[in-house]
Write a structure and sequence with these properties.
The structure is a single chain. By secondary structure, this protein is mainly alpha-helical. It has one domain. It has four helices and two strands, in the order H-E-E-H-H-H. Strand 1 and strand 2 form a beta hairpin. Helix 1 runs antiparallel to helix 2 and helix 2 runs antiparallel to helix 3. The two termini are 19 Å apart.
Amino acid sequence: MKTRPKIRPQKSVWDRVLEVIAIAALAYGVVLVLQAWSTLPTTIPTHFDAAGNADGFGRKGMIWLLPAISVVMVPAILFLRRFPWLSNVPIEITVENAAYQYALIVRLLSLLACTVSLLFTVLVYDTISIAGGGNSLLGWWFMPIFLIGVIAPILWYFYAAFKGR
């Protein structure tokens, strides 16, 4: 295996905006749980079907699972942006294309961190709403939108990466 150039591309304004959104959504999810903790019932919804209906229930402490996963995943994804040469990509990275390809990898990771953070925050909000007797915000549309939010950046990356070989 060839050694890839180890350069760090400059983060664009767009990358920084996505980072701020990801971190803000992560923090908001934690704040939501802290604010709702005293009013949550002892049993809360822990799983939802494809239509957004609660179909699994667990102890109140399970509400911390989503923010905990988010607190690990989002900073990890944002940290990995610092080392784009470690990414496994379908394009040969050369000295000539490294800056462009690495900038794409950084953008992809920024988009995915933002998507994951927003997903977990929406799920926390919905769980708290349902546990408190409110209605679910999630419906049949949630899963397609989430999948598009994850798959679209990956497809964009492949298009842009192959275009800029």
